[in-house]
Amino acid sequence: MPSLRKKIDQHCKSCVYDQNAAGTWKQQTTICSVTKCSLYPVRPKTKSPIPTKVLEYYRISDVDS
Question: How many angstroms separate the CA atoms of 28 and 37, rounded?
Answer without folding.
Answer: 15
